[in-house]
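G., the chain you wanted modeled:
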Amino acid sequence: MGTIRMSAWKVLVLAVVLVSSCILGDTGKASAYGSAASWKTTFDNLLALGDNSGVYYGYTDLDDDAFLAQNGTYTLDALRRMYEVTGQTSYLQKLSTYVDNMYSHLGDVDSDGFLGWGSTYYHPTNQYEEYLYHRGMMLYQMAKFIQLVRADSSIASATNPQGITYGAQANALESVINSDLIPRFNTSWSNQYNVYLDNLHPGKSLPYNQYLAMAAAQYEMAKINLDANKHYLTWADGMTAMWHYWLTLNGTGYHWNYWDRLTPADNHNLHLEDWNHTTVDFMHAISNYSRGGKFNTAAMNRLGNTIYNNMWNGSTTAPKLSFYVNGSGADTGEFTLQIGDMERWKPGIWALYEKNLSLKSFSSFSARYLNDIAIMYQLHPDLGTPSAFSLSSPSNGATNQNMDLAFSWKPSLNAADYTLQVSTASNFSTLTADVPKIVGTNALLTGSVLSPNTTYYWRVIARNGAGTTTTSGINSFTTGSNKTYTLTFSHYDNRSGGLAGYHYKQVLIDGTVVWEGDVTADALNTWITTSLDVTSYLTGKSSVDVKLRLYDKKAVSNYTVEVLWDSVSITNTEIMNSGFESSPDWYWTKTIPGFNGTFSSTAHSGTKSLSMVLPINTSTAVGDNASVNQKISVIR
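Predicted structure as tokens:
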């Protein structure tokens, strides 16, 4: 993966793309400017213009992720949607090829130990840098490709254009995403703020669209393997909560800033979110909706109203959007990209979206327009009745299923979206869950929706743009018992005997002390492993905060101590960096200025442990001396 210099025409193409990002809504029944068949022809003709080396096969065959993310991902999204709606194999084959184009450009250019993509585009001296926003946009599309393959065993076993099975390609993608492409940014994750901070300007906040792109990717990865990737769900939920908190009611819609000042280091100028970044924000909201998160139907309706009631200029012949999400600024914004998806929550957006496209020229290739047409086509009201389709996961008759559960199904041809229904009754006379308007073929049910030791029936209803529906078959599954949780950790200190009642080693869960030990009570310089049942503290929760701390119950003026921690685990949870072998994943705080915290070479296992050292001649007060904490994910 080498450094490339951008020619003038490529810079112009990127500049055009960078000023275009929005979202639409539900399926409109207004008369269309073109039939579904005519728009498909337009799509195919435009795709043919981009399927060559002159435009790098839809901008998927470059080694600069400014193009891969800002152009190539639009091509991937377009191809996947068209395959899902039409079942046309050539779209799937091209999607596989274009995903492989991106995959082939992975490298470790900056020698940080992680494979990835980067860009020289934004740096004044063409320095290579890796961007969270670009990574999130690319991984979102790769996750959606993996979902498509995993939902259909006939696709997974088929040979792709690269000569391997689609299943093998999906496995390779999932592996590198989990081992390199997401962990590369772990050092910029903040347990304090529950968001990614700026990896290029440490300590500063990012614009919402940048970390929300990664949150959307993590939601989609969690849907692929919830048990293995539960921490993605926890992290994405934290980022969602931050954005949701800062949303402000604005009539029937919302307004929000491009970014807000979250950290003491933030000094950026505050301004409202603009139309060309709302597409990423909305992409994330749609992923959160199908996760059953904060963006419920009411919140999604408000996002749709933001576009239709606050930003739209009111014209049906030349529809435009205000520059800012509150309706202010010149009407320079376009109905483009995921703004079309918002039709599901605000009927009427689709007609404006299609009108906007009808005014375009498609004489040269544009990845953005390709994606626009695919979104519009998926929602077109004259598509035929959705075709029969089948359910994928959980498989029929599956037992011992978790209470937090991922669902997937095969695409239904002509479908615009889906409704997931779950019931304890085989005739669905009562519904445990009823989730309409799912964009895509995956959804999550988490929290208190499902109960233990219960048999459920589930089905999916496919809907097209005119409202015609087709219902899948019915599968059943049975949940398992509530899980138990055992906390195990190793601890060590350099005190033996002496004054008791002062320094205590403590473990807390969600602020409650679940274990403590006086430093004078244990053998000197000896590792001790402790296990205890913490089920009562975790039952029913999707995540908990675990804290390790050195605490004083009495103030001292000179009582030095060193405490070491290692090998922290809780069964049926995901604790990151449980052995303290590297620096990320635990958030460090201290109240004593002279306090030292390091990774010690004295380890219970591995090569390192966490050291908390209160130096000699250091005064303390009652309370924490130092602590580390981590929000961990709970498997339910």
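Residues 65-86 form the longest helix (22 residues).

Shout if anything looks off.
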